[in-house]
Amino acid sequence: MSRHNLAPFTLVALTLLVAATSVRSMSQVEGLVAGLLGGALLGTVGLKRTRFEISGQKDCYVPDPWIGLALTTLLLGRLIYRFMQIYPAMQAVAMHADSSAGFASMQRSPLTLGMFGLLFGYYICYYAGILMHRRQALARLQATAVP
Predict the structure, then answer these.
(1) Distant-in-sequence, close-in-space partners of 49: CB < 8 Å, separation ≥ 6
(2) Greater confidence, 114 or 55?
């Protein structure tokens, strides 16, 4: 099984795992679902901007680098921002054992889950589209090869 066949299923499993840990709060679930829907929309745009090349029996593609770069930058920026927010609470916990209440309230954020959903939704939709294109391309190649 190739990387492209395995990627959508792995990402769906990761998404379900993240969703299972965020069911405590409806706002977290809403953030994740909104991110997944936005990511699926971006995945569709990414597929339209992808250049597919078929040479002989090989089906190659060149993705649009800007969408993946923008999504990765957004997620990393959000994670750095959250770490900067949580860092003072982490120091307080290290200094005083009884001050962990502030840290617990900052562990989950709907916006951060939305960013994860955006990334997961994009790559699930994108890799599923790549798989569908690959199957269609191979079917066309086999149809033209049969005399």
Answers:
(1) 63, 64, 67
(2) 114
Cα gap 26→11, rounded to integer Å: 22
Torsion from C-alpha of 3, 5, 10, 11, nearest 10 degrees: 100
Taking the C-alpha atoms of residue 125 and residue 65, their distance in angstroms, rounded to an integer, is: 16
**Statement: residue 129 has pLDDT above 80:** yes
Q: What is the pLDDT of residue 122?
A: 93
d(CA 44, CA 1): 24
Pair 121, 40: CB distance under 8 Å: yes
- Taking phi over 0 as left and psi of -120 to 50 as alpha, with beta for the rest, 56 belongs to left
Look at residue 147 in the predicted model and tell me its pLDDT: 60
Which H/E stretch holds residue 58?
Answer: strand 58-62
pTM over 0.70: yes
